[in-house]
Amino acid sequence: MWRRSLKSGLLSLMAFVERSTIIRFASNIGDRLKKLNESKQFQRTLQLFHQHQKNNNEILSSLTITQALKACTHLKDIQRGKAIHDLVSSRTKDDHYIVTSLIHMYMQCGDIRSAETLFDNTKTKVPSMYGAMMKGYLTNNEAQKAFEVFHQIKTPSEVNLVVFFQVCANLKTQQALDALKKVLLKEENSFQSNYRLATSSVNALVECGDVARAEKIFDKIKGKQLPIYGAMMKGYVATNQAEKAIALFKQIEGPNDIIVNLLLNACAQL
Q1: Cβ(105)–Cβ(74) under 8 Å?
Q2: Considering only CA atoms, which of 102, 185, 183 is closest in space to residue 150?
Q3: CA proximity to 217, closest of 183, 268, 175
Q4: What backbone phi and psi angles, to 5 degrees, belong to 39?
Q5: How far is Cα 262 from Cα 123, in angstroms, rounded to an integer?
Q6: Of the candidates 165, 261, 172, 181, which has an alpha carbon nearest to the alpha carbon of residue 208?
Q7: What DSSP letter does each residue of 126-184 carry, written as one string?
Q8: For a Cys staple, 71 with which of 38, 45, 85, 99, CB 3.0–4.6 Å?
């Protein structure tokens, strides 16, 4: 009797160890794929993924799958991306990381319809999915659709806001400017402490023709860096305020080529 119990216990222990090893192995594969992607070895990423995939797709971690999709995106390899989608289709209902990566892959490969279908069929949407759709539309020269997607988001993330500002800068319409102003009023407190948001908003306002409002945000920012100086100088040059552009240039330490070209454009207006 005791031998049977001992045997049963050993079998349970062995099964537990095996499951733990498989899970740890799957996690290690994800980390290895990530390192390959970071070093831009995208073909090797996919080779490693397919070597270890076999029939074990149920134990592939989200990290492993999203890194494989990232490699497909960079290579514009939509066929292998679709194959991975088929492989993990049962997991798209409850894994927003995979869904977001798939949407991004389809959009960056130019398959807008597949991205839209996946997005529309996803019941519980998270900000990253909206962001992937917006970026995709912008990449595919459909900024107006990206603009419309933004207004479906209940609580935009920082990334959503940055992409929205890029969309408005691309559209350069009165509708975009009006929407931009509403967002700025709502998120005003965030901009003074978030350099990325501040820079994106200044650039969007300049592109939409509201240099005066851009200037107000610019003046409140501490620790300014080259991108926001460039955006503000561009606005001054666009509105024939050469003196302001030149005065701003004098505040910049270590200007880059873009800043110098803006200075030359300002000088040409004198």
Answers
A1: no
A2: 183
A3: 183
A4: -95, 15
A5: 47
A6: 172
A7: -HHHHHHHHHHHHHTT-HHHHHHHHTT-SS--HHHHHHHHHHHHHH--HHHHHHHHHHH
A8: 45
Angle between helices 174-186 and 211-220 (to 10 degrees): 30
In a 3-state reduction of DSSP, which class is residue 13?
helix
Rounded CA separation 160/133 (Å): 10
Cα separation, 219 vs 210, in Å, equals 15
What does the angle CA 62 – CA 67 – CA 73 come to, to the nearest 5 degrees? 125
Distance CA 197, CA 200 (A): 5
What's the CA gap between 202 and 211, in Å, rounded? 8
Tokens of 150: 């933004």
Q: Cα 52 from chain centroid?
A: 28
pLDDT tens track, the chain, 270 positions: 545 554 454 444 444 434 444 444 455 899 999 999 999 999 999 999 998 887 565 578 999 999 999 999 999 999 999 999 999 999 999 899 999 999 999 999 999 999 999 999 999 999 999 999 999 999 999 999 999 999 999 999 999 999 999 999 999 999 999 999 999 998 777 777 788 999 999 999 999 999 999 999 999 888 899 999 999 999 999 999 999 999 999 999 999 999 999 999 999 999
The total number of residues shown for the chain amounts to 270
| Sign of the alpha-carbon dihedral angle for 187, 191, 192, 193 | positive
Rounded CA separation 244/225 (Å):
17
Q: Which of 247, 239, 158 is nearest to 201 (CA)?
A: 158
Please, are residues 101 and 70 in contact by the beta-carbon 8 Å criterion? yes
